[in-house]
Input
Amino acid sequence: MKKSLFAFLLLPCLAPSAAAQVRLLPAADVSLLGGKYYLDSDAASFQGRFDAFFSPALQLGEGHELIPVYSGNYSGTQDIQELAGGGVLTRKRQTHTLSLKYVYTDEFDKYKPRVSWSKALVQETKDEKWGDGLFDYNTLSAGFEAEQERPYGTFTESYDFYSVKYPNYATLLSEAGTVIDTTTFNELSANAGTNTLDNANHRLAFGYTWYPEPAVMKAGYDFTYRRYGDQAVISRPATGQPYFKSDKRTDLVQNWTCRVSRAIKPVFMSVGARAGWLNSNQNSYDSARTKYIGNYYSYVDFELNPAVSFLLKNGTQFSFGLDWRRLYYLGRLKQDAAGNYGASKINQTFWLTSVAARYPVYGKVYAKAAYNYQVSSSNMRYEADYRYNYRASTYLAGLEWEF
Output
């Protein structure tokens, strides 16, 4: 692998016959859609959505590929995103990602080192400028994937390290010294940290795909260790007020997935299932109601997502999808509309229905339309911080180009 990569870097110095083995295999997909978003029957103004994917892949000879990718999207329609541990209403979003992957193939085995960088910008209010969003974040990652194809199935293993930084998000505790007494301020500010959402992650994933005719089945497991290096753990002492410990927040995330798919032309059907568990050592303290809540971010969730698509001979496509997710918080207590705490824990159910159609207009240009309808319901009634109960729908229509 090292020799092959070194040879590629020296490609301009190689003989013409060696350079002639390099083949450019470009791929692209661009779509421009417009539509409206409805939240609890309130309509937002007509807005657009833009998605782009470019990959000038290089085949460096037999068994060697270099795949650079740019992907970007802009969404002018409102939606609710899960940010900082809850559902936040955003007005506009855009994301840009650059990645590079090298693929070395040795008969039935593949090895794929990769790196990527992405920048996400989020607007919560109409007058907020791009780059000033509280939840803007940058992600830098590097990883490696191995794949082994065998007669009875294909195995994959991967490791990724990625760092997520929020340049505009910082605690305001340093400004609280003028509004609270000195003793309380000193107790709270010790170990409190500043860049509390920045985190570093180590992720391991394993997958197995097999082919019991006429279906294709896939099972997977992934484990992520996430550490918030500047977010101290909130602790409740035997007496007195909670304080920040020197320990930092760490989350352990596990997912078990499976999927089965089958093609009966012109119909393609699939159904996937997932079970997840997030275990966090972070707690919470509601100072307005002097309520300490342990195990605040931990939860288990379950997901089921059947889908079916139709591909006609003239290139027309129809697709239908349903996504159901049920989430159970392990420590977060439900509240009534006034904010009073109950004894039971919060649960939340999501339903997402998706319908899309694509019709060839000219060459690789398609007319495209999509409709999404999402319902979120919960036993949580207090929504001053996050949205738990809502109905949202999106209508989009426009053009897509493939290459």
In short: Residues 2-402 form a domain with the Porin fold (CATH 2.40.160).
